[in-house]
Automatic annotation (TrEMBL):
It holds the Pfam family adh_short_C2. This is Acetoacetyl-CoA reductase. Residues 3-179 form the Ketoreductase domain. Belongs to the short-chain dehydrogenases/reductases (SDR) family. It comes from Thiomonas delicata. GO terms for biological process: monocarboxylic acid metabolic process; poly-hydroxybutyrate biosynthetic process. It comes from the Bacteria.
């Protein structure tokens, strides 16, 4: 039977590209979003993919949301892509506790919230794929992003630990670490700053969301069962680990 893939934050940007790519690969796909109803409607109209609204930072909402979508679709989640993320940039000496907690909760704790809900089902079926969308800035650090770099580096540690726990159960857990990608998140960056960033990318341009989706499709492929605990950098050569 076609597998059900769930992509958090899948109505815009990288998540939307991942959802559409997985749909083209023949998976059944559902996505989540948080507040942008217009973008969600446009995405649903364009793709026919069901979009569910809840806050991934809220553990109870994740539990209830996954239960509802599984009941609606009559199928359990076998592929999870933890993609939803936000930035709240400020230098540490100016960062508020709220900015810190918002990013840790949305980018890092959400991985726990979502993986915790689906992992038992994957373990009982002896198959599963989890991909966590980290960031180049979790690998190398970034000025003004102590919260975001900590969350994204935390996702990489989470990925490795859960990969070890899940390996004997046929579940792979990997991270993709994108470099700067042409989405709404990056269009919020000051154009002068962005010019400087592009100058540091050996490939000489931003990534396209579809290029990040390509890495995710590779990791969730049935033939990728021996790849687990890894972080796949998709950054145009900007940071080589
Ligand atoms: P966008 O801002 O374009 O889209 C973010 C998506 O996440 C939207 O669908 C949004 O929903 C959803 N979302 C945000 N907060 C929540 C929440 N609390 N609960 C549920 N859904 C939420 O982001 P990108 O596509 O640029 O980024 C996707 C991922 O890739 C993020 O994790 C980001 O950190 C990471 N990344 C991005 C890079 C880039 O250069 N763009 C580089 C490296 C990593 P809604 O539309 O309702 O707001």
């Amino acid at each position: 039977m076609t597998k059900l893939a769930l992509v958090t934050g899948g109505t815009r940007g990288i998540g939307a590209a991942i959802a559409e790519r997985l749909q083209r690969e023949g998976h059944r796909v559902a996505v989540t979003f948080h507040g942008n109803d217009a973008a969600a409607r446009a995405f649903q109209d364009r793709t026919g993919i069901a979009a569910y609204k809840w806050d991934v930072a809220d553990a109870e909402a994740c539990q209830a949301g996954v239960q509802k979508l599984q009941a609606d679709l009559g199928q359990v989640v076998e592929i999870l892509v933890n993609n939803a993320g936000i930035t709240r940039d400020a230098s540490l000496h100016k960062m508020t506790l709220e900015q810190w907690h918002a990013v840790i909760a949305t980018d890092l704790s959400a991985c726990f919230n979502m993986s915790r809900v689906v992992i038992e089902g994957m373990r009982s079926r002896n198959w599963g794929r989890i991909v966590n969308i980290a960031s180049i800035n979790g690998q190398k650090g970034q000025f003004g992003q102590t919260n975001y770099a900590a969350a994204k580096a935390g996702m990489i540690g989470f990925t490795k630990a859960l990969a070890l726990e899940s390996a004997r159960k046929g579940i792979t857990v990997n991270a993709v670490a994108p470099g700067y990608t042409a989405t709404d998140m990056v269009s919020a960056v000051d154009s002068k700053v962005l010019e400087g960033v592009i100058a540091q990318i050996p490939v000489g341009r931003l990534a396209q969301p579809a290029e990040i989706a390509h890495a995710v499709a590779f990791l969730v492929d049935a033939q990728s069962g021996f790849i687990t605990g890894s972080t796949l950098s998709v950054n145009g050569g900007q940071y080589l680990v």
